[in-house]
Amino acid sequence: NPFDDDDLIVHDADPFADPSIATALQSTSVEMESSTLLSSGTGSKSTPTPHLGSTPSVPPSTGNGAANSTLNAREAELRRREEELAERERRLREEAEAIRTAPGVLRAPNFPPFYPMYYLDIDVEIPEMERPLMRNMFRSWLGTLVILLWNAVACFLILVSHATGVNTGATDFGVAFMYCISITAASFYLWYRPIYNGYMKERSMYYYIFFIFNGFHIGFQYYMTIGIPGSGSAGIINTISMLSDGRVVAGVFGVIASGLWAAGGTFSLYLYRHVHHHYRVQGHTFADAKGD
């Protein structure tokens, strides 16, 4: 055919048969495999490389550093002071314990204030945990003295009131006055001083002395609440006699005396139970008391 032109015939051949195309495809395949291997090895996406023309980093301000240094210095100073206070407190506690437990230490008497015969200092001789109870013991002893004085005044009013049917006023006042001296001294030596020594030295013998005589003391206080004529008490019975005969002043003093005796006995019983609990916790026994 004259119109046939071999140059214009398009051969239905494989386009990848061209050597240049095959080389380019092979190069691209190798690059893709390398990229896949790198991605699977690192487990993360590739990050773009920063441009060289990016803004340079600004150095941190020195103001925050100075403030942090000041705070650190203050914290160090506070820690140092706390350590000094803790050390000073420890030394004082050790010194107090050494003074308290030192045998045969002679101290200047400071009690009673008007004529010192004994050294008593709860803050020095009694362990810190037991000081509140011992202070209450001292208040109980002082309270007994106050009740005795009030009772004596009430009995004196019974004496001078000359109520009808009351002929024991002189006896009541005399006994009440003697109680002010004898009970005050006996309570100090028989139960307050022993329990003080018991908490100071933790010896069973002192606890048993306290249990015996403070038990009698509690019974005595409730007995005085009754106010039997001639017993030295302006308690309930004598108070009723005063009020029944119209002796109001003596009756009012008797009412207060009765309330004080009852309150004193109840407070003493409360302290007694606390001491007994402490005695059991410390493991004291009667055998230890006999050994003391």
Automatic annotation (TrEMBL):
It is a multi-pass membrane protein. Pfam families: SCAMP. Coiled coil: none annotated. The chain crosses the membrane at residues 141-161, 173-192, 204-224, 248-272. It is found in: Membrane. InterPro entries: SCAMP (IPR007273). GO terms for biological process: protein transport. Keywords: Membrane, Transmembrane, Transmembrane helix. The keyword Transport does not apply. It comes from the Eukaryota. GO terms for cellular component: recycling endosome membrane; trans-Golgi network membrane. Residues 52-72 have a biased composition (Polar residues). Residues 34-50 have a biased composition (Low complexity). Residues 28-82 are annotated as: Disordered. This is Scamp family-domain-containing protein. The lineage of its organism: Eukaryota, Fungi, Fungi incertae sedis, Zoopagomycota, Zoopagomycotina.
